[in-house]
Design goal:
The chain has 295 residues and is an alpha/beta fold. The chain has 2 domains: 63 residues, no CATH class; 182 residues, von Willebrand factor, type A domain (Rossmann fold, 3-Layer(aba) Sandwich), CATH 3.40.50. The chain is 33% helix and 27% strand. Helix 6 links the parallel strand 10 and strand 11.
Amino acid sequence: MKFGSRIQALFALLLSLSTIARAQGPRRVLFVTPVDQNGQPVAGLSADDFDVRELGDSCTIVRVDPANEPMRIVLLVDNSTAASRAVVDIRNGVQAFLDGLPADDEVALATIAGQFRVRVQPTSDRQKLKDGASLIFPENGSSPALVDGLVESDRRFLQRTERRWPVFVIVTTDGPQGVGIREEEFNRFARDVVSRGVTAHAFVLFPRQRVALQMAEILARSTGGEYATLAATTGLPDRLRALASRLADDHKRMAETYRVEYTSRLRNPTSEVAVVVNRPGTKVQVAPDRRKQNR
């Protein structure tokens, strides 16, 4: 089976994942928005106020806390030879994206020409990020190393990040990959980011139906992120500006939401999950993960 066919099969599998794998048993996360009889958010709730049931059976609640943490965004930018004619639009797009984000969100800026390279460490300092973006130039003779960039940036900036909402924003060409595609490594990576609730948004420039396009689509669609291809890159700044606006709106909605982590009684996820808030007159809106709630 060709790699493209295999990752399409992986795509179907990833769409069914919502488990947080733990040694002591499957833990899962629900994002719950409690409202009163007037539709207003209910604040000040704790684990004792929630009851989670799967197929009618009560589950052990591990933790409940507000889901309003800032985002940590890894912005991966392709500056390979294939991106050389788009570099001005890429710089302008990064600037537009930064202008639209909430002020307390952190961004790490990195490029993937030939190899993964950190341009700016995670920071909320917008001027530092803009200065870093202005220094992005194409590296002639290079190819994008998308898999390396995803795996390494996740390891450095997202895997062990507490109290941050992890997000990838990928701007890449569909050019030939500079490093051989390591299918098993990509599969493991994709499963892991889905299970951890990472959101990935991807914009593929000059699409040519290569593997890079398929990988970007799988990550975006399986995590509930935005995915787009652009044959003409002049529209990239507007697309990134719109994405920043969407993320800002998502951030506002999450201020009214609780993250409820519980131990499941079931081996596989189920849609038969009920959540009750033990306060008179309170109703809840439930999403199995943050991505579905904000779509």
